Amino acid sequence: MHSDLSPHLHTDDCNILINLLKQCHTEHNVKKFFGHCNDMDRAMRACLKDEVRTTSNLVLILKGCLTRCLLLVFSTMFLFLINSELQRGTKANNMLKR
User: Fold this and answer.
1) Contacts with 87 (C-beta within 8 Å, 6 or more apart), sequence order
2) Taking phi first (over 0 means left), then psi (-120 to 50 degrees means alpha), and beta for anything else, what does residue 55 get?
3) Residue-wise pLDDT tens digits, 26-55
4) Most buried in the list 22, 41, 89, 91, measured by CB within 10 Å?
C-alpha cells in the first residue's frame, strides 16, 4: 500500500505517474491483475519514495538550522543576563564603598 495519492500532496512528476497508473487501471481493468500496469506502479512508488527522502532531508536540515539558531539565541540571552548581573553587582559594590 502507498500513501495518499491526492495531487496536492505530491510533485508534478509524481502526479503524472499517478495519473498514468490510474489510467492504466481504468483501461485495463482485468489485465492489471496480471501485471499489465506493474512498470507504472514501480515508477510511481519510486517517485513517492524519492519525495519522502527529499522531504526527510529537508526536515533534517531545517532541524539543524533551528537547533543552531536556538542555541545562539539562548547563549546570547544567557550572556546578556550574566552581564546584567555583573553590572548590577558592580553598582552595588560602588554604592557600599561610598
Assistant:
1) none
2) alpha
3) 898 888 888 889 988 899 989 988 888 888
4) 41
